[in-house]
Amino acid sequence: MTEQPASQGPTATLPPQSANGTSPQLPPAPSPTESRRMHTRISGMRTSLVAGVGSALLMGTARITQLRQIIRRNLRKPPAS
Q1: 24 contacts: CB under 8 Å, gap ≥ 6
Q2: Which of 23, 52, 70, 76 could form a disulfide with 18 if both were Cys (CB 3.0 to 4.6 A apart)?
Q3: For position 63, what pLDDT does the model report?
Q4: Which tens digits make up the pLDDT trace of 55-67?
Q5: What stretches of 1-81 show up as alpha helix (H) in DSSP?
Q6: How far apart are CA 28 and CA 35, in angstroms?
Q7: Residue 17 CB coordination number (10 Å)
C-alpha cells in the first residue's frame, strides 16, 4: 500500500483516514451565514423589544392626555340643574 501525504491544513485529534474511507470525518466548519443569522435574530428581538416599549409609552402618554382633556371639559361646564 502507498502512504498518503500529510495534509497541510489544521491538525485534528482524529485518526488518519483509513484506506477504505470509513474513518470519521472532521465536522464541517460553521459557515459565516450561520453567525450572521444569530446576530440578526438577536438584533431583531432587540428591535422588537424597543419598538414595543416605545409604542407602549407613546400610547400611554396619548391616553393620559385624552383623560386630562375630558376632565378639564367637565370641570368648565356648570352642573345641570
Answers
A1: 14
A2: 23
A3: 97
A4: 999 999 999 999 9
A5: 32-76
A6: 14
A7: 13
